[in-house]
Specification:
By secondary structure, this protein is of the alpha/beta class. It has one domain: TIM Barrel, CATH 3.20.20. The protein has an eight-stranded parallel sheet, with helices on both faces. Helix 3 runs parallel beside helix 4 and helix 7 crosses helix 8. It is globular and about 45 Å long. The N and C termini lie close together (12 Å).
Length: 256
C-alpha cells in the first residue's frame, strides 16, 4: 500500500535532529508522498529547498492564521512572487481560527481573503485551517471561489462537510481517529462519503493514540488508515487507494 500524508510539518525544528531517519521509516511504512504546508514567510525558502531535495515531498506556501504577529505587510507580495517562480502544490496553511481568544478576527479574515485571491489567480488549491469558524469559512469560500483543496483536521458537522464537498474540497482525518473516545470524529469518518476523505498526520502535532504525549510523525499514518478501516468497516488497502486518489484529484498530484 502507498499512502499520502496530506498535511505534515516535516520542515519544523522538531524534526531537525532525525528528519532523514523519519523519511526512511515513512517510505518503509508505505508513506511515499507528503504535503508540507508552511506557517510563516520565514519558512518558505527552507521548505522549498527541502522539497526540492527530497523526492515525494510537496510544498504548500501560506500564512497561518494563528501566527498573525509574525506576519509582515510585505509577506503577501513575497508569496505572489514565490507562487509565480516556484509553483507550489497549494496555498496553505491558511484559514480562520475562532478557538483562540483575542486572536484578531478581522485581521484573520483579511489575510485569508488575500491568500484565497492569490490561489484563485494562480489556479491552485488551498489547505485550510478551521477551528470554530466553519460557517464563516464556508461563506468566504462561496464568495471567493478557488479550485478546491483540503479542510485540514475536519471537525465540523456532517452538513458542513457536505457543503465543503459541494465547493470542491476534501476533508482531512488523522490522529484523532485513533482515539476510541473521539466518537464525533469517528462518526464523521464513518458517515461521510469516502470521496470526501483524505489522510493526514499534522505531525509533529495531534499524535496517534499509541504515541500519546509524544512527537507525532508521518510514519504513523498507517495507524490513521487502520482507524479509518475500523470505523468504516472497510478494507485498509481499498481505503489507502481511495484516499490516495482523492488527494491526487484535489491537489493535482501526479500518480507515483
Amino acid at each position: 500500500m502507498e499512502l499520502i500524508d496530506t498535511h505534515c510539518h516535516l520542515d519544523v525544528a522538531e524534526f531537525d535532529v532525525d528528519r532523514d531517519a523519519v523519511l526512511a521509516r515513512c517510505r518503509a511504512a508505505g508513506v511515499t508522498r507528503i504535503i508540507i504546508p508552511a506557517i510563516d514567510a520565514a519558512g518558505w525558502e527552507p521548505l522549498l529547498a527541502l522539497c526540492a531535495r527530497e523526492p515525494g515531498l510537496y510544498p504548500a506556501l501560506g500564512l497561518h492564521p494563528i501566527y498573525l504577529e509574525q506576519h509582515r505587510p510585505g509577506d503577501l507580495d513575497t508569496l505572489k512572487t514565490l507562487v509565480a517562480t516556484h509553483r507550489p502544490l497549494a496555498i496553505g496553511e491558511i484559514g480562520l481560527d475562532y478557538f483562540i481568544e483575542n486572536l484578531d478576527r478581522e485581521r484573520q479574515q483579511t489575510l485569508f481573503e488575500a491568500q484565497l485571491h492569490i490561489a484563485r489567480d494562480a489556479d491552485l488549491p488551498v489547505i485550510v485551517h478551521v477551528r470554530k469558524a466553519h460557517d464563516q469559512v464556508l461563506k468566504t469560500l462561496r464568495r471567493i471561489q478557488v479550485r478546491g483543496g483540503i479542510i485540514h483536521a475536519f471537525n465540523g458537522s456532517l452538513q458542513q462537510g457536505e457543503q465543503y464537498l459541494d465547493l470542491g474540497f476534501r476533508l482531512g482525518f488523522g490522529g484523532t481517529l485513533t482515539y476510541e473516545g473521539s466518537k464525533r470524529i469517528r462518526r464523521l469518518a464513518r458517515d461521510l462519503p469516502l470521496s470526501a476523505i483524505v489522510l493526514e498526520t499534522d505531525a509533529p502535532d495531534i499524535p496517534v493514540a499509541s504515541h500519546r504525549g509524544e512527537r507525532n510523525s508521518p510514519e504513523y499514518l498507517p495507524e490513521c488508515l487502520a482507524a479509518l478501516a475500523e470505523v468504516r468497516e472497510e478494507d485498509a488497502a481499498f481505503l489507502a487507494a481511495a484516499t490516495g486518489r482523492n488527494a491526487e484529484a484535489v491537489l493535482g498530484l501526479v500518480e507515483s
